[in-house]
Amino acid sequence: MRPESLAFLKTLLDSPGPSSFEVVPARAWRAEAAQITPDIDVDVSGNSFATIGRNAGRRVMFAGHIDEIGVIVTHIDETGYLSFDGVGGWDSQVFIGQRIHLLTRGGTITGVIGKKAIHLMSPEDRKKVSVIDDLWIDIGARNREEAAALVRVGDPGVLAVQALELPNGRLSSRALDNRLGAYVVLEALRLLQEDGVVPAQVTAVATTREEIAYGGGGARPSAYALQADAAIVVDVTHATDYPGIDKRKDGDYQLGNGPVIARGAAVSHVLAERLIEAAEAEGMPYRLEASGRDTFTDAEAIFNTHRGVATALVSIPLRYMHSPNELCQLDDVQNTARLLAAFVRRLTPDVDFVPR
User: Fold this and answer.
1) Do the beta carbons of residue 89 and residue 234 sit within 8 Å?
2) Domain 3-68+174-345 carries which CATH code?
């Protein structure tokens, strides 16, 4: 990965943007996109668009959601403690002992998540799994008036964790799901733009609200507006290369073994085969993933939009999903961008996306 690309990815990862509050990372994404193409837009749902090859041929959509899971303030009590709820799917144990950045009208406020100390718990309570109702956010306020001067009900927040580079080209962050997808669709656009001639109209979209809206989120209106002939959704999937995983049930996906191409639900067989052919032509490692039901990604929303859109799903293996320390391998990220670019390069005007 180019140093400039890695710097942009880390900026994207460290930008706070839980579902429905994606403005900060979306602005960073559009600023980077402006270095690739002047053809940039944003819609009322907060989706960001960057297009190359306008009217050049078939319309192709690359979609990666830019939101992350987070929290939202639900109540301020008389002593200044904040109650909160999760935005997106959380294991509530993750919250214990964490710091939180709250995004307020006055800027970022940092607080800590509180829980009764183990010394004060009964033996029975020590055995219980903590739920969000057992926790609170402490911003140092002495009473409701002080807290309310800084924070309002409905203010969102994210865990106060920064991106961390690890050995062997590995990267950890709270927001790899799915800033990786938002990064990849733009990186694929850059790779295609470097070719000079693009055989299709290609639009990269940083979609919103995927973590809280499996049936649509921002992907649905963006796909409706683009009227694409084909779409490739880029998301993450579970790496299964750490202890305790049943590979017969969860598949065999390892960091460094390349992008994962889905086959099955909400996926066009035609596009999946073309992606497999592109990967093999490029000599690129890849894996296949079976999706017998919903993929729980933007693929469903796009596949079923308007008249229907031929849709594929390509995923990046990820350890420790929905935690402060999600972990990926940068080779997989870059190879996913290369795969999307290779798919477009192989398009011809007569390509048929209809399964016949």
Assistant:
1) no
2) 3.40.630.10
The tens digit of pLDDT for each residue in 42-56 reads 999 999 999 999 998
**Radius of gyration over every alpha carbon of the chain, rounded to an integer in angstroms:** 21
pTM of the predicted protein model: 0.96
- pLDDT at residue 215 is higher than 70: no
Structure tokens at 24: 């900060």
To the query of whether residue 4 is one of the catalytic residues in this protein, the response is no
Span 91-95, mean pLDDT? 94
If one compares 307 and 241, the residue with the highest pLDDT of the two is 241
Does residue 193 sit in helix, strand or coil? helix
Angle (deg, nearest 10), helices 3-14 and 23-33: 160
* Highest CATH level, class, for 79-159: mainly beta
Catalytic entry in 210, 211, 300, 326: 210
| Domain ranges for the chain | 3-68+174-345, 79-159
Cβ atoms of residues 48 and 30 within 8 Å: yes
Residue 286 is encoded by which pair of tokens?
Answer: 């890849």
DSSP string, 69-121: -EEEEEEE-TTS-EEEEEES---GGGGTT-EEEEEETTEEEEEEEE---GGGS
Provide the token pair at 224.
């409706």
